[in-house]
Amino acid sequence: MTKVVILGGGNSPEREVSLRSAQAVMDAAQQAGYDVSILDPQSGWSVLDSIALDTVVLPMLHGIGGEDGEVQQELERRKLSFLGTGSTESELAFDKWQTKQLLKGKGISVPNGELVTFDQYRNHPMTKKPHVLKADRNGSSIGVYIVHDPQHLDQKQIEEVFLFGPCALLEELVEGVEITVPVLGVRALPVVEIIPPEGEEFDYENKYNGETQELCPPQNVSEEQQRLAQKIAEQAHMALGCKHLSRTDIIIDSSGELFVLEVNTTPGMTHQSLFPKSAATAGVSFPDLVEKFVHMAQQEKRYT
What we know:
The mean pLDDT is about 95. The protein has helices spanning about 15-30, 70-75, 85-95, 95-105, 120, 155-160, 205-210, 225-240, 275-280, 285-300, and strands spanning about 5, 35-40, 55-60, 80, 115, 130-135, 145, 165-170, 175-185, 185-190, 190-195, 215, 245-250, 260-265. The protein folds into three domains: about 5-85 and about 290-300, Rossmann fold, CATH 3.40.50.20; about 95-110 and about 175-285, 2-Layer Sandwich (D-amino Acid Aminotransferase, Chain A, domain 1), CATH 3.30.470; about 115-170, Dna Ligase, domain 1. The protein starts with a strand and ends in a 5-residue tail after the last helix. About 35% of the residues lie in helices and about 20% in strands.
């Protein structure tokens, strides 16, 4: 029987969601018949030393330490078989500015934006219009400030964004229909439409409080737009060198143009998360999804 270790928890601000993802994946792995356990690297990476070489590792660590290449580098150093994108590519995808530049260079539309310091932000002409300020290296909508009315800026929220680093990404606010497109292997799964509570954003709280509508299949996205979104998600996945899985967040503006907002290399896997919801619409149950994860990790030839 294949032994599977799930990594959950860690030290990032997304620790609680990571633990929920790990538990959901563990439940599904047990249903799939695997000998499975969870390890929490909260106290350091030495916990990985106990993992045998014939074990498959499923990292469910979100945010800093989990999606930025750090845990991937530790797993690579130990020559362990693991699910997901490698360390170098994970580090790239976690950097919003570098990701934006790479995707733009591949002809994929992204919102106009610049990398700014705190002082540059305060005097930037883009702040006179609706905009978004987000931490350059963070995940799950943490460290994001959406400004609809530039006349009323919240200094506390601005300062909180810059707590995550000396530079932040300043972008024009693109409003429209929010969607996300998971990729499994190299193929896109069904599109999920995201409808936050009226008058609110799809922020960290609304991602997990159950008040956001997540429609799969979508109601307000044409079939043509869905096919295009899936193509864009596959292109972004390949451009960033992602492996096994990713989830691309996209917004469709009033003219119908699609803009990539972010690419997640370790998307949430709780029972409420968008990736398993999309997979289920494609006819892939959670246990079947985890079985695919294990097989992809086993077949990945990372080492010679």
